[in-house]
Amino acid sequence: MSERTDRELLAAHVAGDRDAFGVLFTRHRDRMWAVALRTMGNHEDAADGLQDGMIAAYRRASSYRGDAAVTTWLHRVVVNACLDRLRAGKVRRADPLPDDLDERSGRGSLVAADPSGTPDPADVAVRHERRGVVLDALATLPPEQRAALVLVDMEGYPVAEAAVMLDCPVGTVKSRCSRGRARLAELLAPLLDAERDADDVPARNPVPPAPVSPGDPPRGPPVS
Amino acid sequence: MNDPDDAVRRLLAEARHAEPLPDDVAARLDDVLADLRAEGPPPAVVDLAAARRRRTRLRNGLVAAAAVVLVGFGISRVDLSGMSTDSSDAGGSADSAARESAAAPAAPSPLDGDAQAEGQLDGQGLASLGPVVRLRSDRLEQQVQRLVAASAAGSDQGRSADEVDECPAPSGPGRSLAATYDGAPAVLVLRPPAGGVRVADVYLCGESTPVRSVSVPVG
Question: Is B201 helix (H, G, I), strand (E, B) or coil?
């Protein structure tokens, strides 16, 4: 039997199917978790925001008008729940997230492994540190700018879709992203400079091949 | 040469969270979902236009009532200037309304002034019926938290929404309180505690889907 589509699941939920919403939410909750986590800045607040969003989506399912994808609507509800919490100041102090590499390194989707399967510990440490710096800087942005950057630059949603999720015009999303990036460029200047310097190091000439040792003794002058 | 914008975007993309929902959060959401399922199906779609018309009628009625009060007040002022009218009743009504406003319950509230009597005839239609919970969207969570704490301590706040004819309580389990939400007539429904949290739904009058839901920890 084919899987029910998101729209079918939502319609079934509104019609009284007790399991449909759970199936729908479970289908998308990993990505919504990612958005909530990056928007809220820490595990606990993200869990609260996602929970608020889930409850709101469950109860307001009948308000879905079908003019956007269900997943867009779900994200919109969750993002709004997160922003409501942030605006209300009902959040814990955001700490650098130990959520990724440490907590789940065993599952390994973030840590790029080398072809032999063993990540270079130095690479891991550098990535971890860089990610911490980026997330710290992101946490200093106003919630609306942060949410826009999370959706557009982190999650890769088109600006138009992010605008639906954030319930604002496309131009507003663009300007929030632009201002947010400009601020991050200031905050992350040392990191960006270091990267630029690394890029600017001229590539070394290829190592010349080792001289071929002649198998025969040098030839002397022709014997007359 | 690197564009700083592109560089920032690349750093952000690298910092994307790509892991699944943690098990503890998944378990928590599953618990809450089970509670929601136990409540039954979500509310059906309502005719929003009809609800809007209803609210408009209510608002118009209140404006008319406020106008009557103001006219009565005006006539009594004329009375004071020495002209003879039969406005004593009207003036009395106005005074009475003013007294009721002044005497409206102002007991200490767990909402620190957010839940108080609506005695100012501010167009919410609930003034004559006693205290309502005055909710604000930017402080909803703190307000609900205090209400829940007060409720747990046995100090019931607010008036049951059952008493508000023009704004019937939505269906489903929980305690319904007459409220205003950012000034609009509303009902606050405190759902039964479950899984260590209590969900509060705010319904605007005439609508069967909540305009806002929050969950707060209990205990």
Answer: strand
Residue A24: inside a domain: yes
Closest Cα partner for B204 from B63, B56, B104?
B56
Nearest to B121 by CA among B93, B144, B161: B93
Any idea what the CATH number is for the domain that residue A77 is in?
1.10.1740.10
Per-residue confidence in pLDDT tens, chain A, 224 aa = 578 999 999 999 999 999 999 999 999 999 999 999 999 999 999 999 999 999 999 999 988 988 899 999 999 999 999 999 998 876 665 544 444 444 433 333 333 444 555 667 777 788 888 899 999 999 999 999 999 999 999 999 999 999 999 999 999 999 999 999 999 999 999 888 887 777 665 555 555 555 555 445 544 555 44
Q: How far is A120 from chain B (nearest CA, A)?
A: 17
Which chain B residues in 33-72 lie under 8 Å from chain A, judged by CB atoms?
Answer: 33, 36-37, 41-45
List phi, psi (to 5°) of A135.
-70, -35
Domain membership of residue A175 (yes or no) is no
Nearest to B29 among A50, A59, A178 (CB): A50
Is position A138 within any domain? no
Is 0.90 exceeded by the ipTM?
Answer: no
CA distance B49 to B125: 20
Residue B185: strand, helix, or coil: strand
Domain residues of chain B, as ranges? 23-217
> How far is the CA of A160 from the CAs of B57, B156, B170, in angstroms?
38, 46, 35
Find the closest chain A residue to B35 by CA distance. A55
Specify the DSSP class assigned to residue A167: T
Residues in B closer than 8 angstroms to A29, CB to CB, are: 21, 26, 29
Give yes or no for B202 touching A (CB within 8 A).
no
Domain of A76? Answer: 1-95
Sheet with strand B175-181: strands edge to edge = B115-117, B131-135, B175-181, B184-190, B197-204, B212-217
Structural domain total, chain A: 1
Residues on chain B touching A34 (C-beta within 8 angstroms): 16-19
According to DSSP, the residues that pair with B133 across neighbouring strands are B115, B179
Would the CB atoms of B25 and A149 count as touching at under 8 Å?
A: no
Cβ-in-10-Å burial (0-12, 13-18, 19+) of B31 comes to middle
